[in-house]
Specification:
The protein is of the alpha+beta class. The chain has one helix spanning about 10-35; strands spanning about 45-50, 55, 60-65, 70-75, 80-90, 90-100, 145-150, 150-155, 160.
Amino acid sequence: MKTMIPHPAFPAFCSSLQLKMSVLVVLACLPLLAGCGKGLPATGDVTGKVTVGGKAVSGINKVAFIGADGKILKMSPTMGGNYGMTEVPVGTVRITVRGTAQQPGAQLPKPSNPADPGADMNNNMPDMTSGVSIPAKYANPDNGLTYTVTTGQQTHNIELTP
């Protein structure tokens, strides 16, 4: 059996090839490593209640938080004016509150047959006239309402003036 003797340059060639391959693998992985450690932005969960002059508000369509980047998070509060938003980016947000165009003292339609409460759905509708209406100025993002969101859960009641 004949033994092959490697060429004297062969070990240097192999080492050079291995080095080049190692460098290529590291360079190929750099874009993947660049994103590590950043993760998602810090967020907070905000709950609260919207009132006007300390009174419950009826007819709220939307509460919106507008971040410094212009991103808008909206939600529809409950009939009592309670709201809650999750995963709000940390930082100062501007707040808008929009309401319906209801007139103070407006009445809901009366049931068609008061003797039969199940006769129509109006009997099951909440009384929209029990609260106060929302001043239109709060629909504008430059209304002066701001809040600084921190990480975790927090409460921020929104008190509007008539």
